[in-house]
Amino acid sequence: MADMQELEVEELEVDEDFSCEVGDSDEEATAVESEVDMCGMCDAIIEGQYLTALDNKFHPDCFCCVNCKQKIAPGQDFFERNDKPLCVDCHYLLYGYKCKVCDQFIKGQRLCWGDDAFHFQCVKCTSCEKTLCELMI
Q1: Of 28, 33, 38, 48, most Cβ neighbours within 10 A?
Q2: What's the pTM?
Q3: How far apart (Å, rounded) are the C-alpha atoms in residues 65 and 84?
Q4: Are 74 and 95 contacting, i.e. CB atoms less than 8 angstroms apart?
Q5: Confidence (pLDDT) at 3
Q6: Burial of 109 (C-beta count, 10 Å sphere; 0-12/13-18/19+)
């Protein structure tokens, strides 16, 4: 499963004086463009605050779940799938396992039997009715 990640907010340092040289060749133009921070979602220039996540920088309003488009705020947990952010709810909805007993998504460890998945606390002994958690104590 994908790792949960946390966003960091950083302030982009902007100097008072800007200078730019316009060259005649494509190589010089590329060198000037490479110094500008671009948003990893909208590809626009970043000025002011930005978020750092997934080895990229983003406008705070651009960083959102690629499935439901809900904004992912700094400090909010999210999952990465194919280098794209997924909110926790969408991750479990699209890639999570549901417990065969309680029909809730399994967060953390799960017990698998065939094609079925279970919470450890939902599996009970057929003889004594104790859960696996109670039997392991």
Answers
A1: 38
A2: 0.58
A3: 8
A4: no
A5: 53
A6: exposed
H helix or E strand, kind and range, residue 91:
helix 88-95
In degrees and rounded to multiples of 5, residue 63 shows phi and psi of: -80, 105
Asked if 85 and 68 count as a contact pair (C-beta separation under 8 A), the reply is no
Q: What is the pLDDT of residues 31-81, one digit of tens each?
A: 455 578 899 889 999 998 888 888 888 898 999 999 999 999 888 899 998
Are the C-beta atoms of 47 and 14 separated by less than 8 Å? yes
Q: What angle do CA 52, 65, 107 make, to 5 degrees?
A: 100
Residue with tokens 């909110």: 87
The pLDDT tens digits for 100-116 are 999 999 888 888 889 99
**Residue that has been written with the tokens 């439901």 in this structure:** 68
| Dist CA 7 CA 19 (whole Å) | 32
- Residue 6: CB atoms within 10 A of its CB come to 10
88: tokens are 């926790």
